[in-house]
Write a structure and sequence with these properties.
mainly alpha
Amino acid sequence: GKLNPSSSGMLLELGRLQKSQGKLNEAEASFQTVVELHEKSGGHENFQMLSAMRELAGVQSRLEKIGDAEESYERVIELYERNPELYQGGKAIALGNLGAIYRRTELRCN
């Protein structure tokens, strides 16, 4: 199906509102839906998709879903690498957040 950018944008903003209210499980579901909508529409490599993926990874990290967060941050980095025309500051942030996850995991194992 065709993705309606305005509904995707509203869902992204809903997820951000839920996150700001501490409703992390609901926010995770909203961000995941935005990602899935973009993937199903075939137009998944754009700024809105990257925003949703970054938000999803951050919420997963806060929910202690470390494996999911790691996978999401790795996808964000991969999307930035395939789309160099997008602002690359988000890639640096994703790399830093992924490093923080690795450090947390390492601390738990020691």
